[in-house]
Specification:
This protein is of the alpha+beta class. The protein folds into three domains: about 15-190 and about 410-455, Bira Bifunctional Protein, Domain 2 (BirA Bifunctional Protein, domain 2, 2-Layer Sandwich); about 250-380, Alpha-Beta Complex (YbaK protein); about 470-565, 3-Layer(aba) Sandwich (Rossmann fold), CATH 3.40.50.800. Helix content is about 25%, strand content about 30%. The strands form eight sheets. Strands 3, 7, 8, 9, 10, 11, 12, 21 and 24 form a nine-stranded mixed beta sheet that branches. Strands 16-14-15-17-20 form a five-stranded mixed beta sheet. Bound molecules: adenosine-5'-triphosphate and magnesium ion. Adenosine-5'-triphosphate (ATP) binds next to strand 8, strand 21, strand 24 and helix 12. Adenosine-5'-triphosphate binds near residues 109 and 140.
Length: about 575
């Protein structure tokens, strides 16, 4: 392709509407244009990258046993009513009516569609396992569409669904997908982690988020610095921290006027904060009060708390009346003296504390010498705290560090959630009817592209990993008005094309500076410059975008040298 034939309108200025680097660069490099909030046009360069990402995904899905299909984007309301999700999906779902008034949605995902497809034909265990996938637009009316392709309202997703006859089969499909995802992100040249994720709503199963590491990412993840354990901050498991054993002193009340925060109490009583216990009071969607207790310097992880509460869908901060009704006092809370039957959950580390300080459920009063094993006999004990940097890895005991990343893909086991609701059943070896065991596996194609840019850029622009670069090489004649230079550049260009390299010839008659700036901004992995030296001394210049390394080669060797360099990128 020649630049004179390429629609890639680059911008010199950073568009004010773009907050993160990837969004700014994708606009500036002429990759995308906004059509409306959360809706983007992919211009030719972006579309080339999208196609490359899709191709890598497709190859790995096929290799793992997936079969590509294409299901309708427009989905009838009935199947969503059958699964129960029509009522609960809420405002994120785009809903439309046809001319007869029948309701449809624009698919935000396809569990219902694929499950009803399979239930009508798959009857025997002999037809399982089955993996079906597609790559197509999804629609979600996100509250806050932002960061360009990162969180759009229309976006491209690869979604694969697995159907197995038993749990063992489902876990095997999950493992295949996990391995395929690992290969996909490795082939794309991205620094990523498979991160253990919470799948609370579905419960019980496995889930990993494939997270591309980048400071601007929305996901906070805990990574072990010694082993490959990585988990989302919500999910990260924690070991018990045992305080040094002490003789149990008798419980004692202390006046702590106005000390209604943990820092104030610790200061007032001159105790290290690790000797204090703090409370967070929640209420469930069914209005049940839940009191959670952690060590004063720790934070409560509300996802872990929610997962302990069967049937609860969400938690909010409790109101004062509910707390008072249970015998508590906001700001001065402990499990001691709380009304029987109130749900009290104490973090496992709290149970290992000695002679600690906690509220006395009276305004301006705390207890000291609280010994949870003695004083909280009825509490439920669990790991309910939030991970933080410096915690110990639950797998190997190494040190945890916190990093940020972008969730580019997610794999889930679903069990029989959808097959039961939608009656996708089959007959097993003994002729018994069973629901299929399912899994679902998504990759955000556009978000992956944005994540790649977020991770790979510098002050001059994007630095594409070779596998997903819109073009691998740009050949730049310094002065395209000079017929000798242009001819030499064309020769290199043609040789590279013959070698099946994805190459662009910047044949614009613009100043060299403009073309170099664009090359850096768009971020082709390799630039080949053909200038006066090529004409006079047979010296062509090759520049590696990522390292800035410059090599020279003769015109005859240039293509081979480029192929060699690309092999290392
Ligand atoms: P998030 O938590 O970021 O909203 P999600 O968990 O709802 O995402 P999934 O339903 O797991 O997303 O969708 C699979 C993949 O689709 C995600 O891993 C992500 O890469 C992509 N994706 C989800 N929502 C969007 C969006 N609004 N814009 C672009 N890509 C998205
Ligand atoms: Mg997700």
């Amino acid at each position: 392709m020649r630049t004179t034939n390429l629609y890639a309108p680059t911008l010199r200025e950073t568009p004010a509407e773009a907050e993160v680097r990837s969004h700014q660069l994708m606009l500036r490099a002429g990759l995308i244009r906004k059509a409306a909030g959360g809706l983007y046009t992919y211009l030719p360069l972006a579309w080339r990258t999208i196609k490359k990402i899709e191709q890598i995904i497709r190859e790995e899905m096929d290799e793992a046993g997936g079969q590509e299909v294409s299901m309708p984007i427009l989905q009838p309301a009935e199947i969503w009513q059958e699964s129960g999700r029509w009522a609960v999906y809420g405002d994120e779902m785009f809903r439309v009516r046809d001319r007869h008034g029948r309701q449809f949605c624009l698919g935000p995902t396809h569990e219902e569609m694929v499950t009803t497809l399979v239930r009508d034909e798959v009857r025997s265990y002999k037809q399982l396992p089955l993996m079906l996938y597609q790559i197509q637009n999804k629609y979600r009316d996100e509250i806050r569409p932002r960061f360009g392709l990162m969180r759009g309202r229309e976006f491209i997703m690869k979604d694969l669904y697995s159907f197995d006859k038993d749990e063992e089969g489902m876990n095997e499909s999950y493992r295949k997908m996990y391995d395929a995802y690992t290969r996909i992100y490795t082939r794309m040249g991205l620094d990523f982690r498979p991160v253990e994720a919470d799948n609370g709503a579905i419960g019980g199963g496995h889930s990993h988020e494939f997270t591309v590491l980048a400071d601007a990412g929305e996901s906070s993840i805990a990574c072990c610095t010694s082993c490959d354990y990585a988990a989302s901050d919500e999910k990260a498991e924690l070991n018990v921290i045992k305080a040094a054993e002490e003789e149990l002193l008798p419980l004692e009340k202390k006046a702590t006027p106005g000390a209604n925060t943990i820092e104030l109490v610790a200061g007032y009583l001159k105790l290290p904060i690790e000797k204090t216990i703090k409370a967070v009071a929640f209420q469930t969607d069914a209005d049940e009060l839940v009191l959670a207790f952690v060590r004063g310097d720790h934070e409560v992880n509300d996802v872990k708390v929610l997962n302990l509460l069967e049937g609860a869908i969400e938690l909010r901060m409790a109101d004062e009346e509910a707390i008072a009704e249970a015998g508590g006092c906001a700001g001065f809370m402990s499990p001691i003296g709380i009304k029987e039957g109130t749900r009290v959950i104490v973090d496992q580390t709290v149970m290992e504390m000695y002679n600690a300080c906690a509220g006395a459920n009276e305004k301006d009063v705390h207890y000291v010498n609280v010994n949870p094993k003695r004083d909280f006999p009825d509490a439920a004990v669990a790991d309910i705290r939030m991970v933080r940097a410096g915690d110990l890895c639950p797998r190997c005991g190494g040190i945890i560090k916190m990093t940020r990343g972008i969730e580019a893909g997610q794999v889930f086991t679903l069990g029989t959630k959808y097959s039961e609701a939608l009656r996708a059943v089959f007959l097993d070896e003994n002729g018994r009817e069973k629901p299929m065991q399912m899994g679902c596996y998504g990759i955000g194609v556009g978000r992956t592209m944005a994540a790649a840019v977020e991770q790979n850029n510098d002050e001059h622009g994007i630095i594409w990993p070779r596998a997903i670069a819109p073009f691998e090489v740009v050949v730049v004649p310094v002065n395209a008005k000079n017929p000798e230079q242009l001819e030499l550049a064309e020769a290199v260009y043609n040789e590279l094309k013959k070698a099946r390299v994805d190459v662009l010839l910047d044949d614009r008659k613009d100043r060299a500076g403009v073309k170099f700036k664009d090359a850096d901004l768009i971020g082709y992995p390799l630039r080949i410059t053909v200038g006066p030296k090529a004409v006079d001394e047979n010296a062509v210049e090759l520049k590696v975008r990522r390292t800035g390394e410059i090599l020279t080669a003769s015109r005859e060797e240039a293509a081979a040298k480029a192929v060699e360099l690309l092999g290392k990128l």
